[in-house]
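Async update (no meeting this week)

Hi team, since we skipped the sync, here's where things stand on the single-chain job. The sequence we agreed to prioritize is pasted below, unchanged from the tracker. I ran it this morning and attached the output directly underneath so nobody has to dig for it. Comments welcome in thread, and please keep replies under the output.
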Amino acid sequence: MAGLFTSLMFASSVWSLNSDGLQSGDRTPQISENIIAFGRSNSRQRYLQQLEVADRFYSQGAISEAIKIQKEVKEAFTNTGTGRRRPIDDPAQLSGGASSYYRNGKSGLDENLITKALIPLQRLSEDYPEFIQGHIMLAQAARKFSDEDAKIVLKRPKLEVELEALERGSSIFPERKDLLDARLDAFLSYDKFIEASVTARQFALLFPDDPDSGKYLQRSEVYLNQHRKEIADKLLALGFFGSIFGGRDARLNIAAILSMSESDFGAFWAEQEKQKVEIITDPEIVNYVNRVGQKVAKSMGRNEFKYEFYVYKSDNEINAHTYPGGKVFIASGLMNALGTEAELAGLLGHEIGHAVLSHTYIKTIESIAAQGFGDFFGIGDLLAIQLAENSRTKEKQSDILGTRAIVASGYSADGMWNVTRVLKAAFGDGGQDYMSSHPAPSDRVGYLEDFITRNALNRYAYEGVSDYRNVLARLGGGNSDTIASGNSPNNGNAFSGNGTGKPASNSDRPRRGDRVAANSSTACQKGKVSVKGRQERDRVTVSLDGAFVANSCSSFTVNVRIKNDSDRSFTFVPGFVKVFSNNGDDLKSRLTMKKGYQPSAGVGETIEAEVQVFKHRWTNQANQDLVLELKEGSSVARVFRLAF
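Output:
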């Protein structure tokens, strides 16, 4: 499936989706001299020392003394929240150009005059975003006319115009339910059920005190069920439960991905990530980060997720990123740049927010569906559209939801605010500010100050300086160098497999005893050859049973058999089965199911497939020094690697 997907911008990182899974493209903003100087500065050190003193007063119950110290050492907010635009609902309050655009646009709508309506309403929405009805009217105009007419006037599909207009208003006034309802109606009119579900859930989570919060949460579940039914119907339309052949493989692979639950989807990709990085396994670090993360996650409202937190060894990297279902990865470099537990909680709250608000999941689903299925699913317009939400809006949503959560967890409200100041020290306000799509740190400082001030959130609570410093000491020591092998201790992870993803790990490489030599001779043997390999995990056995070498000896096909003696079904995605060489290089390969089989083995069933390997010569050696890798597609995510 390599090449099928284009690069995707995810929640907290630049992600690319390819046959190796979701992982960073060039996602490593490096430690700069600025951030080193910031961390070592006298002012930063004094700041942390004073907060540690305040923590001691907190532990003794002397809250007023702790607050006094924090007020003395913490910088005052400069943003008082007075600069926020006020929404306009009455057209009579419009003046000058805005009034003219409104009159002409309304007249065009009433008279069904395309140009007269769309152009002034576009300008009204863009130039006067505080006028709520301007966005709704532009969306109505785009819906009313044909896509061809919209393309002539605005040079874009009407779906894009409609959703962009409503997002423009919602990004400024996210509390407005008239804009929310218009967005939901737009999504549903184009059968974008998962987007409607996520949007309704986001409102319920961001505005839990709104009297209609529960109603929107219920609607979210209704839309989610519609999405699942739609995917199931499309799987049937593709003949997913019949034979797989030819060009249908790619679509079926994508369909299998789309059919996963949000949690299983994220678990699958998190396993890919774990094999690309060195996961730190020091129990004190693992338990500490997990404790803070789980505490914050409890306040987020998505208890169906299994939250997992991983610190990976990359001391020169300032980065954290999240996979659907609450799988959070933090670079050790970013951990080292922070100074308090409250800052860590702020960071984790932000990352968990991306998962809770389904930012990562919805972005991926949209992009996979658009690029993989195209017009087959009747979503040709989506080829040019990702989501109606831009990345900066998502970052703001996660910042705000994360800030709510850390306050509910007992931390100072300015945890994420302080993280943005660290990021500003690292990157300034330039293009590389915590991954290029994020708002500049100064902007984030501003709207977080506004949010904390307007909601009277407590900046003067627990900071956790001492505990965090102890963790940093271990992070920089020899105990934190260990690469995870199999399950990461104390974090509840159910995956198996090594921590690097490359076959160099002796503990997870198929053992020599698993190999049976292929026939060899002085020249390449063509036709049928004997290849044997077998690996069993939790009563599921994957075995290799013979191969066929092409006359050119430059390609061959290996027979694969999967026997399921466990008490649950076993599924996998054919497009993610890989063959790689002894040095870890991926070979061009493709797995196809044999006639009558599907990539899912029920309890007690055996299924068969073939793996074709292209442009790799079959040698006359006893072993080909190759490894076939097959990964389960569910949350269990067992990994099988068979050498041959």
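Quick observations from my side:
The radius of gyration is 27 Å.
The longest strand covers residues 527-537.
Reply here if anything looks off.
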